[in-house]
Amino acid sequence: MPVSGLTRGSTSVGVFGMQIASLWQNVYRVLGAMPSIMVCGELDGAHSDFASFVEGGLDIESSPATKACQCFTRISQTVFGSQIVRLGFGEGYVAYSVSGLNIVFVHVPNRIATKQSDVELFYQDIASRASSGGITIHLVIGDTNQSSLGFTEGALNNAFSTGAYKNALGSASVSPSDLYGVSQSGTNSTGTKMYDVAVYRSDAVKLVAGPAYISQMSTGLTVTDHCGVAVQIEKL
Q1: Cβ–Cβ under 8 Å, residues 193 and 187
Q2: CA angle, corner 206, sides to 83 and 75, nearest 5?
Q3: pLDDT attached to residue 173
Q4: Contacting residues for 139 by C-beta, under 8 A, at least 6 apart
């Protein structure tokens, strides 16, 4: 339902733009380069309420869903637009090819998140549906709704009969890149559970830089309970 009186100039909309700009800057500080692609979950960037919430040489694409909370919004520099292809999307995920790397951004549905067999099927289905011919998933990144550190990498390894998937957040402790001298034992709002992951296929890609974990407080104004992870990967 539209929020009465919400306009492009509203403070509520401006906060989203501020959060994304701050994320962009913090990722640059850690990785030394602007991200080729950023995906925000639970945001329908195509909705008129969010017209021009970010500006300046950026390409924005929203993956449609029946509920806004299941949408994903891609934000990329326009210069990288021709190198990005959406491979598929559905409940809890959107998949993109970025310069030949197959990346799955996730917000795993709660109803399957704690059942390893269901999560394995979730990733198998994504890989088989993408591009109508199947893909190798090079990176899974996002909110897993699963609190165990090694759960997602284990599910991916079982799903694809390999031992190559590794979690870039290989420790139970993370240091938010936008906060000085702060260490957390998780990536949720209370810093206690490892919901966010960046799991890459180590026999196909290498981790060049990162991970950068950005806290939900990067602007001093909270618009989410956890902001997630950024990494730089390259094909081997």
Answers
A1: yes
A2: 35
A3: 75
A4: 101, 102, 103, 104, 198, 199, 200, 201, 205, 231, 233
CA distance linking residue 171 with residue 177, whole number of Å: 15
Q: pLDDT at position 17, please? A: 74
Query: Which ranges constitute the DSSP H helices of the chain?
Result: 11-31, 110-113, 116-129, 151-159
Q: Are 198 and 174 in contact (CB under 8 A)?
A: no
Q: Indicate if the alpha-carbon torsion angle 44, 46, 52, 54 is positive or negative.
A: positive
Q: Which phi and psi (to 5°) does residue 178 adopt? A: -100, 5
Helix 151-159 with 116-129: angle, nearest 10 deg:
60
| Average pLDDT per 10 consecutive residues for the chain, totaling 236 residues | 48 70 84 89 77 68 78 84 88 93 95 96 94 87 90 97 94 76 77 88 95 70 70 94
Hey, is 104 helix, strand or coil? strand
Q: Are 215 and 176 in contact (CB under 8 A)?
A: yes
Q: Minimal CA–CA distance to 88: which of 36, 59, 129?
A: 129
